[in-house]
Amino acid sequence: MPVTIIIPTLNEEHALPRTLRMIQSLYPAPVEVIVADGGSTDNTRAIVQEWQLLLPNLHLIECPDAGRACQMNRAVEQATGSLLCFLHADTNLPDDALAVITQTLMNRKVAAGGFISIMRGPLQTRWLTSFHNYIKSYYAPLLFRPYLFFAKGARLLFGDQVIFCRREQFLACGGYRDDMPIMEEADLLLKLVRFGRIRQVNRLVESSDRRVAKWGFWRANATFLTIGFLWGIGVSPERLKRLYSDIR
Questions:
Q1: Rounded Cα distance, 34 and 204, in Å
Q2: Is pTM beyond 0.90 here?
Q3: Residue 7: pLDDT over 80
């Protein structure tokens, strides 16, 4: 089954080249890679245009409105692959990731999935933060959506875990909410669970620790916990976004 990789970007000139180099090594290769840019003011778009010489299936779309949810929705509109893989610009996949995605979604009882994210920087691995992100995929729906957790197999995955699903089901559930500035992945998965289980596959991806590096361990993890708890009790994403400032 053909896979479309979708990368939402906003000022990702430092992270994007490494991610595109990684995509070159994927086997099988994606049918296309769509970079959906939200108005970068750095060299992000120029980097994509340069890489189109090396990756002929790499496409750039420029979205009039910034916001990951809106950008990813616009990319899905142009996607031709039957499977979608939403990849952050600072996250790297194993070279067989698309085979893992295809094999996982061959099971029609699985609606969507993601990987185990290991958060790393140039000098260290954030083991505690990575472990918390792993168990959060289970305890968050258990605490806040227990019926969906037990009866439907709901799991809450986040962007750095590289969420993947079928395009037809993404469209059928309405995709991401354009007006959600944060927690859009959790919202999507709670809609997709009606089609089947959400699975966290037992494979690793590597994500940048840049937020933890800038904020510090305690502030970053306290913010992650606070946002997750407040979302669980129904605080609006607009209010939650105030706690999650841009770091670029």
A1: 23
A2: yes
A3: yes
